Amino acid sequence: MTRYKLLRLEVKVMLFLCTQMTFTLLTRPLTFNSNTFYNTLVIYLVTK
Question: What is the rounded average pLDDT of the residues 9-16?
Fold first, then answer.
């Protein structure tokens, strides 16, 4: 993997984590669901 691709992936992950945190804060009662969603997305990112 080139540095450029790695950097782009890092930016994507950072953006996702920010939105995920906001989403979790907005939907406190659905924390379990958001965690499941988060885990699924992490798996997706890793295996892509």
Answer: 88
